[in-house]
Amino acid sequence: MQKPKVAVIGTGGTICSIGVGPFDILDYGANECMLHADEVVAKFPEVHEHAEVIPVRYKAVPSPNIHFAVWKDLVLMMDDLVAKTPDLAGIVILHGTASLEETAYFLSLTAKVAVPIVVVGSQRPASALSTDAGMNLANAIRTAAAPASRGLGVLVLLNDEIHAAREVTKTSTFRLQTFRSPDFGVLGHADGDAIVFYRKPIRRAAPDTEFDIRDLDELPRVDIAYAYTGSDGTAARAFVEAGAKGVVSAGFAPGFAGQGDADVLKAAVAEKGVVVVQSTRAGSGRTFRGKRLREMGFLIADNLNPQKARLLLSLALTRTADPAEIERMFLTY
Protein backbone atom coordinates (compact mmCIF):
# COMPACT_ATOMS: atom_id res chain seq x y z
CA MET A 1 0.00 0.00 0.00
CA GLN A 2 1.35 3.42 -1.00
CA LYS A 3 2.06 5.74 1.89
CA PRO A 4 0.61 9.26 1.90
CA LYS A 5 3.04 12.06 1.11
CA VAL A 6 3.55 14.65 3.84
CA ALA A 7 5.87 17.64 3.60
CA VAL A 8 7.69 18.79 6.75
CA ILE A 9 8.87 22.41 6.83
CA GLY A 10 11.31 23.43 9.56
CA THR A 11 11.32 26.86 11.18
CA GLY A 12 13.27 25.98 14.31
CA GLY A 13 12.19 25.97 17.93
CA THR A 14 12.58 23.49 20.76
CA ILE A 15 11.55 20.59 18.53
CA CYS A 16 14.63 21.33 16.42
CA SER A 17 16.99 22.14 19.29
CA ILE A 18 19.97 20.23 20.65
CA GLY A 19 21.10 20.86 24.22
CA VAL A 20 24.41 20.02 25.88
CA GLY A 21 23.14 16.74 27.32
CA PRO A 22 20.09 14.62 28.09
CA PHE A 23 19.13 16.67 31.16
CA ASP A 24 19.45 20.05 29.47
CA ILE A 25 15.72 20.72 29.17
CA LEU A 26 15.62 24.41 30.11
CA ASP A 27 18.73 26.29 28.99
CA TYR A 28 19.26 24.45 25.70
CA GLY A 29 18.75 27.66 23.71
CA ALA A 30 22.11 28.89 24.99
CA ASN A 31 23.71 26.02 23.08
CA GLU A 32 22.58 27.73 19.86
CA CYS A 33 22.15 24.49 17.96
CA MET A 34 19.01 23.96 15.90
CA LEU A 35 18.46 21.26 13.30
CA HIS A 36 16.84 21.75 9.92
CA ALA A 37 13.76 19.78 8.88
CA ASP A 38 15.70 16.99 7.16
CA GLU A 39 17.97 16.62 10.20
CA VAL A 40 15.02 16.39 12.59
CA VAL A 41 13.38 13.75 10.40
CA ALA A 42 16.67 11.84 10.27
CA LYS A 43 16.88 11.93 14.08
CA PHE A 44 13.46 10.28 14.32
CA PRO A 45 13.44 7.85 11.36
CA GLU A 46 10.38 6.05 12.76
CA VAL A 47 8.21 8.76 11.22
CA HIS A 48 8.73 7.12 7.83
CA GLU A 49 6.48 4.29 9.00
CA HIS A 50 3.49 6.60 8.72
CA ALA A 51 4.12 8.51 5.50
CA GLU A 52 6.46 9.30 2.67
CA VAL A 53 8.03 12.29 4.39
CA ILE A 54 9.30 15.17 2.27
CA PRO A 55 11.57 17.39 4.43
CA VAL A 56 11.78 21.02 3.34
CA ARG A 57 14.68 23.13 4.56
CA TYR A 58 13.79 26.69 5.41
CA LYS A 59 15.15 28.37 8.54
CA ALA A 60 15.94 27.41 12.11
CA VAL A 61 15.21 30.39 14.35
CA PRO A 62 13.74 31.02 17.81
CA SER A 63 9.99 31.49 17.40
CA PRO A 64 9.86 34.99 18.99
CA ASN A 65 11.73 36.13 15.86
CA ILE A 66 9.02 34.81 13.53
CA HIS A 67 6.77 37.46 12.05
CA PHE A 68 5.27 38.57 8.74
CA ALA A 69 8.23 37.80 6.45
CA VAL A 70 8.32 34.17 7.62
CA TRP A 71 4.54 33.81 7.45
CA LYS A 72 4.53 35.08 3.87
CA ASP A 73 7.35 32.70 2.97
CA LEU A 74 5.40 29.79 4.44
CA VAL A 75 2.26 30.68 2.50
CA LEU A 76 4.26 30.82 -0.75
CA MET A 77 6.19 27.64 0.05
CA MET A 78 2.97 25.75 0.68
CA ASP A 79 1.54 27.00 -2.62
CA ASP A 80 4.65 25.70 -4.35
CA LEU A 81 4.64 22.34 -2.56
CA VAL A 82 1.05 21.60 -3.53
CA ALA A 83 1.63 22.73 -7.11
CA LYS A 84 4.69 20.49 -7.50
CA THR A 85 3.24 17.50 -5.63
CA PRO A 86 -0.42 17.19 -6.62
CA ASP A 87 -0.88 14.06 -4.50
CA LEU A 88 0.50 15.72 -1.35
CA ALA A 89 -1.66 14.60 1.58
CA GLY A 90 -0.68 17.29 4.06
CA ILE A 91 1.92 19.70 5.43
CA VAL A 92 3.62 19.80 8.84
CA ILE A 93 5.39 22.92 10.12
CA LEU A 94 7.99 22.56 12.88
CA HIS A 95 7.81 25.60 15.16
CA GLY A 96 8.90 26.92 18.52
CA THR A 97 6.13 26.90 21.10
CA ALA A 98 6.62 30.49 22.27
CA SER A 99 4.72 31.96 19.31
CA LEU A 100 3.33 28.76 17.78
CA GLU A 101 -0.29 29.74 18.37
CA GLU A 102 0.21 33.02 16.50
CA THR A 103 1.75 31.41 13.43
CA ALA A 104 -0.94 28.73 13.41
CA TYR A 105 -3.79 31.24 13.59
CA PHE A 106 -2.19 33.58 11.05
CA LEU A 107 -1.81 30.71 8.59
CA SER A 108 -5.36 29.62 9.31
CA LEU A 109 -6.39 33.08 8.09
CA THR A 110 -4.06 33.30 5.08
CA ALA A 111 -2.99 29.90 3.70
CA LYS A 112 -4.44 29.10 0.29
CA VAL A 113 -3.88 25.35 0.02
CA ALA A 114 -6.63 22.81 0.64
CA VAL A 115 -4.46 20.11 2.24
CA PRO A 116 -4.31 19.82 6.04
CA ILE A 117 -1.68 21.99 7.73
CA VAL A 118 -0.44 20.92 11.15
CA VAL A 119 1.84 23.12 13.25
CA VAL A 120 3.86 21.15 15.79
CA GLY A 121 6.43 21.89 18.47
CA SER A 122 7.77 20.30 21.61
CA GLN A 123 8.41 21.28 25.20
CA ARG A 124 11.70 19.43 25.46
CA PRO A 125 14.56 19.63 22.95
CA ALA A 126 15.19 16.78 20.54
CA SER A 127 18.33 15.83 22.54
CA ALA A 128 16.62 15.51 25.92
CA LEU A 129 15.90 12.34 27.83
CA SER A 130 12.20 11.58 27.30
CA THR A 131 11.83 14.32 24.71
CA ASP A 132 8.36 14.81 23.29
CA ALA A 133 9.80 15.92 19.94
CA GLY A 134 9.75 12.54 18.21
CA MET A 135 6.21 11.52 19.19
CA ASN A 136 4.84 14.98 18.46
CA LEU A 137 6.44 14.90 15.02
CA ALA A 138 5.11 11.44 14.25
CA ASN A 139 1.62 12.36 15.40
CA ALA A 140 1.67 15.60 13.43
CA ILE A 141 2.58 13.67 10.30
CA ARG A 142 -0.19 11.15 10.96
CA THR A 143 -2.67 13.98 11.53
CA ALA A 144 -1.64 15.83 8.37
CA ALA A 145 -2.08 12.61 6.38
CA ALA A 146 -5.51 11.82 7.82
CA PRO A 147 -8.43 12.55 5.44
CA ALA A 148 -10.53 13.60 8.45
CA SER A 149 -8.18 16.57 9.01
CA ARG A 150 -9.32 18.28 5.81
CA GLY A 151 -11.55 21.30 6.13
CA LEU A 152 -10.69 22.07 9.76
CA GLY A 153 -8.36 25.01 9.17
CA VAL A 154 -4.82 24.90 10.49
CA LEU A 155 -4.35 22.41 13.32
CA VAL A 156 -1.94 22.34 16.26
CA LEU A 157 -0.58 19.03 17.59
CA LEU A 158 1.24 18.46 20.87
CA ASN A 159 0.90 15.93 23.67
CA ASP A 160 -1.33 13.62 21.54
CA GLU A 161 -3.95 16.40 21.33
CA ILE A 162 -5.29 18.06 18.19
CA HIS A 163 -6.40 21.68 18.57
CA ALA A 164 -7.91 24.31 16.29
CA ALA A 165 -5.45 27.12 15.58
CA ARG A 166 -8.03 29.77 16.48
CA GLU A 167 -8.69 28.36 19.93
CA VAL A 168 -5.42 27.00 21.24
CA THR A 169 -2.98 28.85 23.48
CA LYS A 170 0.13 28.08 25.48
CA THR A 171 -0.76 27.99 29.17
CA SER A 172 2.34 26.74 31.01
CA THR A 173 6.06 27.42 30.76
CA PHE A 174 7.46 23.89 31.13
CA ARG A 175 4.68 21.28 31.30
CA LEU A 176 4.09 18.94 28.38
CA GLN A 177 0.33 19.62 28.46
CA THR A 178 0.91 23.35 27.99
CA PHE A 179 -1.33 23.80 24.92
CA ARG A 180 -5.00 24.16 25.76
CA SER A 181 -8.18 25.39 24.09
CA PRO A 182 -9.72 27.07 27.15
CA ASP A 183 -13.33 27.58 26.10
CA PHE A 184 -14.05 24.47 24.04
CA GLY A 185 -11.29 21.87 24.38
CA VAL A 186 -9.53 19.68 21.87
CA LEU A 187 -10.86 18.69 18.45
CA GLY A 188 -9.51 15.17 18.78
CA HIS A 189 -6.61 12.93 19.68
CA ALA A 190 -3.66 11.31 17.96
CA ASP A 191 -3.86 7.91 19.63
CA GLY A 192 -1.63 4.95 18.95
CA ASP A 193 -4.21 3.20 16.79
CA ALA A 194 -5.97 6.10 15.07
CA ILE A 195 -6.41 9.83 14.50
CA VAL A 196 -9.82 10.58 15.96
CA PHE A 197 -11.93 13.75 15.90
CA TYR A 198 -14.92 14.58 18.06
CA ARG A 199 -15.91 18.07 16.92
CA LYS A 200 -15.31 20.60 14.17
CA PRO A 201 -14.69 24.35 14.46
CA ILE A 202 -17.30 26.41 12.62
CA ARG A 203 -15.45 29.73 12.24
CA ARG A 204 -14.21 30.44 8.72
CA ALA A 205 -10.64 29.30 8.07
CA ALA A 206 -8.06 28.53 5.37
CA PRO A 207 -8.16 28.22 2.48
CA ASP A 208 -11.59 29.88 2.25
CA THR A 209 -10.75 33.33 3.61
CA GLU A 210 -10.78 36.86 2.23
CA PHE A 211 -7.18 37.57 3.22
CA ASP A 212 -4.35 37.22 0.70
CA ILE A 213 -0.87 38.26 1.80
CA ARG A 214 1.03 36.95 -1.20
CA ASP A 215 1.48 40.43 -2.71
CA LEU A 216 1.87 42.33 0.56
CA ASP A 217 5.20 43.67 1.80
CA GLU A 218 4.13 44.30 5.39
CA LEU A 219 1.16 44.48 7.73
CA PRO A 220 -0.34 47.64 9.21
CA ARG A 221 1.02 48.34 12.66
CA VAL A 222 -1.20 46.99 15.45
CA ASP A 223 -0.12 47.00 19.10
CA ILE A 224 -1.46 45.53 22.34
CA ALA A 225 -2.15 47.72 25.39
CA TYR A 226 -2.14 45.46 28.46
CA ALA A 227 -4.38 46.47 31.33
CA TYR A 228 -3.06 46.75 34.87
CA THR A 229 -4.08 48.80 37.88
CA GLY A 230 -2.57 52.25 37.81
CA SER A 231 -1.86 52.41 34.08
CA ASP A 232 -1.95 56.04 32.98
CA GLY A 233 -2.11 55.45 29.23
CA THR A 234 1.61 55.98 28.58
CA ALA A 235 1.99 52.77 26.55
CA ALA A 236 -1.23 53.31 24.61
CA ARG A 237 -0.18 56.89 23.83
CA ALA A 238 3.22 55.67 22.62
CA PHE A 239 1.61 53.14 20.31
CA VAL A 240 -0.57 55.79 18.73
CA GLU A 241 2.35 58.20 18.37
CA ALA A 242 4.39 55.42 16.74
CA GLY A 243 1.78 55.19 14.00
CA ALA A 244 -0.39 52.30 15.09
CA LYS A 245 -3.38 51.85 12.79
CA GLY A 246 -4.98 49.59 15.35
CA VAL A 247 -4.67 48.79 19.05
CA VAL A 248 -5.92 45.74 20.88
CA SER A 249 -6.86 46.55 24.46
CA ALA A 250 -6.01 43.50 26.58
CA GLY A 251 -8.41 44.64 29.22
CA PHE A 252 -9.68 43.58 32.60
CA ALA A 253 -12.29 40.83 32.46
CA PRO A 254 -14.97 40.81 31.14
CA GLY A 255 -13.44 43.35 28.78
CA PHE A 256 -12.64 46.98 29.58
CA ALA A 257 -9.59 49.20 29.85
CA GLY A 258 -8.67 51.21 32.92
CA GLN A 259 -9.52 54.91 32.77
CA GLY A 260 -6.00 56.07 31.84
CA ASP A 261 -5.79 53.74 28.84
CA ALA A 262 -9.45 54.20 27.89
CA ASP A 263 -9.11 57.99 27.63
CA VAL A 264 -6.08 57.73 25.33
CA LEU A 265 -7.65 55.06 23.13
CA LYS A 266 -11.00 56.86 22.91
CA ALA A 267 -9.19 59.97 21.66
CA ALA A 268 -7.19 57.89 19.17
CA VAL A 269 -10.43 56.53 17.69
CA ALA A 270 -12.09 59.94 17.48
CA GLU A 271 -9.15 62.06 16.37
CA LYS A 272 -6.90 59.72 14.37
CA GLY A 273 -9.17 56.95 13.15
CA VAL A 274 -7.27 54.26 15.04
CA VAL A 275 -9.27 51.04 15.27
CA VAL A 276 -9.44 49.78 18.85
CA VAL A 277 -10.54 46.22 19.58
CA GLN A 278 -11.39 45.22 23.13
CA SER A 279 -10.03 41.87 24.24
CA THR A 280 -9.32 40.62 27.75
CA ARG A 281 -6.29 39.48 29.69
CA ALA A 282 -8.39 36.75 31.37
CA GLY A 283 -7.32 33.99 28.98
CA SER A 284 -10.78 32.84 27.93
CA GLY A 285 -14.31 34.06 27.39
CA ARG A 286 -16.04 36.61 25.17
CA THR A 287 -15.98 40.35 25.39
CA PHE A 288 -19.22 42.22 24.74
CA ARG A 289 -19.99 45.60 23.16
CA GLY A 290 -21.90 47.33 25.91
CA LYS A 291 -22.77 50.99 26.26
CA ARG A 292 -19.29 52.14 27.33
CA LEU A 293 -17.53 50.45 24.42
CA ARG A 294 -20.07 51.74 21.92
CA GLU A 295 -19.66 55.29 23.18
CA MET A 296 -15.86 55.06 22.91
CA GLY A 297 -16.07 53.55 19.43
CA PHE A 298 -14.31 50.31 20.41
CA LEU A 299 -14.97 46.99 18.68
CA ILE A 300 -14.86 43.61 20.41
CA ALA A 301 -12.52 40.65 19.91
CA ASP A 302 -15.23 38.09 20.70
CA ASN A 303 -13.28 35.30 22.46
CA LEU A 304 -9.93 35.79 20.72
CA ASN A 305 -7.02 36.34 23.08
CA PRO A 306 -5.09 39.61 22.61
CA GLN A 307 -2.26 38.17 20.51
CA LYS A 308 -4.68 36.55 18.07
CA ALA A 309 -6.98 39.58 17.99
CA ARG A 310 -3.92 41.59 16.96
CA LEU A 311 -3.33 39.29 13.98
CA LEU A 312 -6.91 39.41 12.77
CA LEU A 313 -7.03 43.19 13.16
CA SER A 314 -3.79 43.54 11.20
CA LEU A 315 -5.23 41.49 8.35
CA ALA A 316 -8.58 43.25 8.51
CA LEU A 317 -6.82 46.60 8.09
CA THR A 318 -5.25 45.36 4.85
CA ARG A 319 -8.81 45.17 3.51
CA THR A 320 -10.72 48.05 5.11
CA ALA A 321 -10.82 50.66 7.86
CA ASP A 322 -14.61 50.50 8.12
CA PRO A 323 -15.50 49.52 11.73
CA ALA A 324 -18.65 47.68 10.63
CA GLU A 325 -16.69 45.53 8.22
CA ILE A 326 -13.97 44.83 10.79
CA GLU A 327 -16.67 43.88 13.32
CA ARG A 328 -18.06 41.42 10.75
CA MET A 329 -14.63 39.86 10.33
CA PHE A 330 -14.24 39.34 14.08
CA LEU A 331 -17.58 37.55 14.11
CA THR A 332 -16.63 35.46 11.06
CA TYR A 333 -13.09 34.32 11.90
From TrEMBL:
Pfam families: Asparaginase (PF00710), Asparaginase_C (PF17763). It comes from the Bacteria. Residues 5-202 form the L-asparaginase N-terminal domain. The active site is at T14. Residues 221-330 form the Asparaginase/glutaminase C-terminal domain. Belongs to the asparaginase 1 family. This is Asparaginase. The lineage of its organism: Bacteria, Pseudomonadati, Pseudomonadota, Alphaproteobacteria, Hyphomicrobiales.
